[in-house]
Amino acid sequence: QVQLVESGGGLVQAGGSLRLSCAASGSGSSIGAMGWYRQAPGKQRERVAIITSSGRTDYADSVKGRFTISRDNAKNTVYLQMNSLKPEDTAVYYCYAAGERDFKVYVYWGQGSQVTVSS
Predict the structure, then answer these.
(1) Is residue 6 a contact partner of residue 22, using CB atoms and an 8 Å limit?
(2) CB proximity list for 33: less than 8 A, separation 6 or greater
(3) Of 87, 104, 78, which is closest to residue 11 (Cα–Cα)?
(4) Is the pLDDT of residue 12 over 90?
(5) How confident is the model at residue 100 (pLDDT cuts 50, 70, 90)?
(6) End-to-end CA separation in angstroms for the chain
(7) pLDDT at residue 83 in the model
(8) What CA–CA distance (Å, rounded) separates 15 from 8?
(9) How many Cβ atoms are within 10 Å of 64's Cβ, its own excluded?
(10) What are the two backbone dihedrals, phi and then psi, of residue 88, each rounded to the nearest 5 degrees?
């Protein structure tokens, strides 16, 4: 199976930057799309960004132009570069990866990273 390990969260002032990383390990599944969701208390889970295995990306309107998702397929790692951070970006960020094995689709989740943006 696949395990996802996140890193890079922390506390930053408004206008600052952070980069989240999520590394996948294991074998047996072909990894397709990878991305990030976030959830703040009292709010619904929101898809932040997604990137396909071929490099196509999509972003939530709230982060478009500020966040950039990328991946290194050789390292099975996805990154989320977050610039011009706002207090509204404060949330727990979860990375995910979609995989396929034996004609079944699986979704793997990271442990979550707290991102706090102070004003």
Answers:
(1) yes
(2) 50, 51, 52, 53, 97, 98
(3) 87
(4) yes
(5) confident
(6) 41
(7) 98
(8) 17
(9) 10
(10) -65, -15
